[in-house]
Amino acid sequence: MQCFGRVMGFNFLSVILLLVHVLCGYVDGKREIPVGAIFHQVPDHSYESEIAFRYAIERVNMHEKHFELVPIVRYVSPDDSYKTERKMCELAAEGVTAVFGPSSILTSGIVGSICKTLEIPHIITHWDPEPFGGLDPDLQAMTINLYPEADVLSRALADLIVDYSWKSFTIIYDSDEGLMRLKDILQIHGPSDSPITVRQIDDNPDYRPLLKDIQTSGESHIILEIRPDRILELLRQAKEVKMLEEYQSYIITSLDAHTIDFEELRYSRSNITALRLMDTKSFDIKNAVHDWEQGEARMKRQFRVSPEHVHTESALYNDAVKIYATAIRELDATEEITPSRLSCGSKNLRQWPFGLRIINYMKVKTEHGITGPIIFDDYGRRAHFHLDIIELSKDEGFKKIATWDPTHGVNYTRSQGEVYSQIVESLQNKTFIVASRIGAPFLMFKEKKDGEFLEGNNRFEGYSLELIDGISKILGFQYRMELVPDGKYGSYNKVTKKWDGLVKHLLDRKADLAVCDLTITYERRTAVDFTMPFMTLGISILYAKPVQQPKDLFSFLSPLSLDVWIYTATAYLGVSVLLFVLSRMAPADWENPHPCKQDNDEVENIWDMLNALWLTMGSIMGQGCDILPKAISTRLVAGMWWFFALIMLSSYTANLAAFLTMERMDATIESAEDLAKQSKIKYGVLMGGSTMAFFQTSNFSTYQRMWASMESVRPSVFTKSNDEGRDRVIKGKRMYAFLMESTSLEYITERYCDLTQIGGLLDSKGYGIAMPVNSPYRTAISGAVLKMQEEGKLHQLKTRWWKEMRGGGQCTEAPNSAGENELGIGNVGGVFVVLALGCFCAFIIGILEFLWNVRKVAVEEKITPWDALKAEMKFALNISVTSKPVHNTLSESTASDKSSLRSKSESRRGSELTGRGNNVRTATSLNNLNKIGFVFDKH
Questions:
Q1: What is the DSSP letter of 734?
Q2: For residues 693 and 687, what is the distance between their CA atoms, to the nearest angstrom?
Q3: CA distances from 722 to 84, 439, 687 (A)
Q4: Dist. CA 38–CA 96, nearest whole Å
Q5: Neighbouring residues of 808: CB distance < 8 A, sequence distance ≥ 6
Q6: Exposed end of the chain (fewer CB within 10 Å): N or C?
Q7: What are phi and psi of 881, to 5 degrees?
Q8: Which residues contact 933 (CB under 8 A, 6 or more apart)?
Q9: Span 679-721, pLDDT tens digits
Q10: Cβ distance 463 to 517 under 8 Å?
Q11: How far apart are CA 38 and CA 107, in angstroms?
């Protein structure tokens, strides 16, 4: 009508020229190129997509000088295939050069088939699955799809799940088409991984029963593959059944999740993540939205939409028109593109000659639109694209946290500092439920004072309480300690396929943290998360010290065995006899008793049995002897005996030193290998603990043998607690050993001095603070633990609760512990007893010898024994006299006749000297006095 209105007032020639231009497809000097579009007649965002389509064409026409795109729009029902075919044929008859849409798989397939026959470009903007049997290049020849390729989009979701470390999850879907979109997600699950649950929802708007079932199963990771109009209602109901708590995480697969108003859920504690194909803050999308609003305003229609809520399909229509117009522009520069009216039912079927060239150009052309880079593969699928990973935040709604592309995968745009700050901020004024169990010194009931009432955290004390208290002061949260009902650490029952203890408490979401001597193991790590270790340890053996034996006065004999002493005594006697015999036989040992008398016919031998015994005794005592053998044979025997004595003395000294330094125990075990090799001493572990799991799963033959032994012993050697194991060791009287973690063992040995650690550590592991999987607080709490470690607070806590509190330190060894291995008087007192006994015997012998001499003097002097005794005693007690006459002074009864006594004594001197000469000669033989030139007095 506008064209005909413009004809009024023109002359006939002008009218003819205008009619020619109109018939040839020209308007205002531009060639008309009609493009068709098919939209669905449903109350959804199709209206927004149509607006995007129309105003994208309008913007193209504003900049084009040679052609003008003319939109021709038709409407069909999503499931009306007959009407769709008819509308498509109408568009072909009107000479459309391309068809956009529709957005359902059923109707789009019909349109694509007709476009393939007529070679009209078909451009779609929805998810399209790969046909069964694979893609057919001929069937896909005329179709271009701007929606992300199905397999690549599925891979993006799989990469996100792997990055989030989801080992198990539940998929909620509402259509078979949706389940097909998650093909790659299902394929990343291995046979040994945790099970993946797939649940379908129907048209029933009550999702609570389904959500409660998921909650009962303990699953906290959920993937929502449902229509956008159902997402908000499902999450509302999830909030009602407490499925939007801290440890629940949701991934929404719809690329339109950002268009939903989550205002009422922004303050939920759960993590809600979605994907977005466009950057809502880009200039292109803001410019496009401005065109939509201004265009509708010119048409007296009101339309409002923010760039953050633009639907993906609308953005794709905008980009589809842009890339199609680019293809027309580029090809039209080389040859004029003219539309053709085509018929679907004509016998002489004609095809549009430009359609295939336009499609091929679009496949090789790279453009950048609202939805990012637009690159197609040989099948016309969009195989390369960028996705924004967005997360629902309290302040901004959906916030971009990362990007994804097929080349680089997930790439986070926020720094670790931002994440940490966000987590710490969320911890403010939060109250954690901290699960634990009673076990010294980690957590114990506080001893009440008279009249004192304790409640809450004040009921407890111990290392765990002070550890979590220190962390809470660093991060600024509150906490409430609770005891796990069964008092167990946490082990997995392969029969029931359930956990118990602290791990179960966390899985049931009854606690936020678990703090105690909970060992970090691979099996537990699959169920819960751990912070960095706050204490390192290993498995060791608790055993009773030997009973203190009564001290032996003759312990100094212990360095050498009884057999050695017997052999030494035998050797002593044998060498003495051999020396005596050889000296009797050797000519060199027979000597002249009077060296001054060269013509003496008699020689003597000083080596009687007594001297032989004395020589060997002096040698073994290391003191030597004044006389030595002269013959070669006797010298050789003496030398060999000296060598033997030196070796024996060195051996005794070495063994004595070892005896002094060794720990005097009668222990029969020193390591786990010793336990495994014997069957007399029983040994066990804590039932259901990590130590038990260590032996169960170990591949080391020694530990396998130990586990088999423990499992087969009756009565059972397993205990319900470490305290029970400690008591069994005490009562077992060194017939039971308990394998336990070194930290608990150290605590026990600090307080029970009759118990000790045997051997070293069997393994190395650590205690950590446990929390539900993917807890957002793990990084912050690990950082707090590291800070306490660097400041030395962890060491201070251990020293306080191991060595100071609750009786600690009473078994600690003194700083100078050298004396503990010394032989005390109780051990070597026998040496003093032997010395005293020898001195007493020597004293008795000396008395007897003195009395014998007194008797001899009395006989010789013909005086009474009493006088002789007094005279000898008087001389002996006069310590100032250093020389003694041959005869002592006589008794006082004959002192008056001193002169007669002196003369009498002198008259008898001659005969006395003769008798004493023999004695001197004997003494000379004993003392070898002839060697020092003793001169006899001749009378």
A1: T
A2: 9
A3: 77, 8, 10
A4: 12
A5: 441, 747, 750, 751, 801, 802
A6: N
A7: -85, 130
A8: none
A9: 899 999 999 888 998 999 899 999 999 999 999 999 999 998 8
A10: no
A11: 9
| 584 marked as binding residue | no
Strand, helix or coil at 253? coil
Q: Is 259 labelled a binding residue?
A: no
Q: Specify the pairing of strand 99-100 against strand 409-412.
A: unpaired
Tell me the β-bridge partners of 221: 249
Q: Which of 919, 479, 508, 547 is nearest to 732 (CA)?
A: 547
Task: Flag whether 519 is marked binding.
Answer: yes
Token pair for residue 156?
């993006």
How far is Cα 732 from Cα 669, in angstroms, rounded to an integer? 15
Q: Is the pLDDT of residue 23 over 50?
A: no
338 annotated binding-site participant: no
563 vs 888 pLDDT, higher one: 563
Q: Is the pTM of this model over 0.70?
A: no
Amino acid at site 266 = R
Structure tokens at 407: 């080349």
Query: Is 820 marked as a binding-site residue?
Result: no
- In single-letter form, the type of residue at position 566 comes to I
pLDDT value at 417 more than 90: no
Q: CB–CB of 384/375 below 8 Å?
A: yes
Q: What is the pLDDT of residues 42-73, one digit of tens each?
A: 655 568 899 999 999 999 999 888 899 999 99
pLDDT class of 566 with cuts at 50, 70, 90: confident
Kindly report the number of other CB atoms within 10 A of residue 669's CB atom.
20
DSSP helix, strand, coil percent of the chain (3-state; round to 5) = 45, 15, 35
Residues 6+ apart with CB under 8 A from 773: 165, 167, 220, 247, 527, 528, 529
For 700, residues 6+ apart whose C-beta sits below 8 A from its C-beta are none
Return d(Cα 653, Cα 647) in angstroms, integer: 10
pLDDT of residue 809: 79
